[in-house]
Amino acid sequence: MSNKQFIERTLVILKPDAVQRSLVGETIKRFENLGLKFAGIKLALAKKEDVRMHYTVDPDWIKITGEKAKKAKEKQGINVSESAEEIGERVLESLIKFMTAGPVVVMVIEGAHAVPLVRKIVGSTEPLSSDVGTIRGDYVFDSYEMADTNNRAIRNLIHASSDIESAKKEINIWFDENELLNYSTAQERFIYDIDIKNILQ
Ligand code: AMP
C-alpha cells in the first residue's frame, strides 16, 4: 500500500451517554463511511484511575480546561474567583464521575490523517456550538452553562485524541498491544493505491 507515511492511529471513546442513547452504530458508521478502519474496539467499564491518567496525559490539561471554562463563564458576564487550576480539577472530578457511570466503547481508529479527521467529524467540545454535520452538533445539545449549573461534565458523547503524541499515550492506557490488529480492508486498495488497475474486465 502506498501513502503509508500518512497512516495514523487515534483513540476514540464513546462516552456513557453515547452508549445509553444507543448512538454507537450511528457514530462509528461515520468513521467507516469516511474510509477509516478499527485497529481495536471493545465495550468496557472505565476505571477511575484510567480516566484520571487519560485526562492528565497532557500535564497542562487541567489548567487549559480550567481557563476555557473560566472564559466561557466570563463571556456570560459571570465573574470567577477560582483559579484555572481549581476549576480544571473540578471538571476532572466531574468527568471521572461521568466516564465511570456506565459502559463506554473504546476504539483505536486508523487511516491517513486519522487524528485530525476524527476530530473534524466529532466537532468542538461544547455541543451547543459544535458545527451541524459533526457528531456532537447533530446528536446532542449540552452546553457549558447547563453543565456548570448542575456541576457536572458536559455530555458530548465522544472523546477523540487531539494529536499523534497524545493518541499514542492514550492508546497505551486503554489497550494492550495484542488487542490491536494490523490488517487491510478491501476498500483500501482504492483509497490509497496509485495504480487503479483491473477494475474493467
Ligand atoms: P475530551 O473528552 O477530550 O473532549 O475532554 C474534555 C471533556 O471535559 C469534555 O469533552 C467535557 O466532557 C468535559 N469538560 C471540559 N470542559 C468542561 C466544563 N467547563 N464543564 C464541564 N465539562 C467540561
**Strand order, sheet with most strands:** 2-3-1-4
Spell out the helices and strands N to C. Answer: EHHEHHHEHHHEHH
What CATH architecture label of the largest domain applies? 2-Layer Sandwich
Per CATH, what is the topology of the largest domain? Alpha-Beta Plaits
Number of helices: 10
Topology of this structure?
Blueprint: E1 7-14, H1 16-20, H2 24-34, E2 37-44, H3 48-55, H4 61-75, H5 84-99, E3 104-112, H6 114-122, H7 135-139, H8 144-149, E4 158-160, H9 164-174, H10 188-192
Antiparallel strand pairs: 1-3, 1-4, 2-3
Helix pairs in contact: 3-5, 4-5
Walk me through the structure.
The protein is built from ten helices and four strands. The protein has 201 residues and is of the alpha+beta class. The radius of gyration is 18 Å and the shape is elongated. Bound molecules: adenosine monophosphate (AMP). Adenosine monophosphate is lined by residues 65, 69, 91, 95, 125, 144, 147-148, 153-154, 156, 159.
Features:
single chain, 201 residues, alpha+beta, Alpha-Beta Plaits, 2 domains, 4-stranded antiparallel beta sheet, 10 helices, elongated, binds adenosine monophosphate
